[in-house]
Amino acid sequence: MIFDRNENRPVIALLGAGAMGTAIVRRIANGKQILLGDISTENLQTVAHDLAASGYEVATQQVDALDRASVEAFATKAASLGEVRYFIDTAGASPNQSSPEHIVALDLVATAMAIDVFANVIARGGAGLVISSQTGYMMRLSDEVERQLALTPTEELAELDFLKHDAVASSGVAYMVSKRANHLRVRTAAATSWGDRGARINTISPGIIVTPLAYDEFRAAGENYQAMIDASPARRVGTSDEIAAAGSFLLGEQAAFITGTDLLIDGGVIAAINAGRFTLGG
């Protein structure tokens, strides 16, 4: 049975088919063509089956986010399906899952690369969204380091002294730096490569959001997460649906004047830290 006979459907490309990205896609996918990219073929099959069973048009492609050729092939596939109107990047590794070097490579350098690659295929009037983290607000970097993270060509990022030494002191530090770099790279892209295409791009920085993968973090550092929840004004965790609501807004026409910015969605954790109600590692 053919569910949608309309031609020239706008394309949504999702890199990293996890819970938050999939929730955002569901919010905006009516009448559109979805392209899912993930390194896990098993995850692709599961997510694609669920979306197709709900009536969405879905294609998949295995993607290694660390490999530029693989990401470029994914972008080419997206463009072959139609006008690429939306790009969502959720690919990343958490501190208790990976080494500092891997986090810098995936969450920082590979994210910067994906932003570059999709700047070449995003349609005029299109929108991008990178899922960052509240941790991007948890470490103060010097103005010079921030300038380097924002403006260094992507192919030279990994060679920055700061990333080769300070940023890999621990997985936690690597994660904070990478997520701050997401904000800075998107801000730059909004004014340059994406702006030149007539497209917008923003970031979202979720706080403690319950997803299947989040339980690895809870098991490894549950007491610290509980302390953050208890100290936050919201006094609870967030959900993928709440991130999706904000994501759909930033990708939609009502946010047409918003680009190069980050939306912090953390239940007030960073506010509690800044007010002295919670101390990291305390």
Automatic annotation (TrEMBL):
Keywords: Oxidoreductase. This is Short-chain dehydrogenase/reductase sdr. NCBIfam families: PRK06940.1 (NF005395). The lineage of its organism: Bacteria, Bacillati, Actinomycetota, Actinomycetes, Actinomycetales. Gene3D superfamilies: NAD(P)-binding Rossmann-like Domain. InterPro entries: NAD(P)-bd_dom_sf, SDR_fam. It comes from the Bacteria. GO terms for molecular function: oxidoreductase activity. Belongs to the short-chain dehydrogenases/reductases (SDR) family. Pfam families: adh_short (PF00106), adh_short_C2 (PF13561). SUPFAM superfamilies: NAD(P)-binding Rossmann-fold domains (SSF51735).
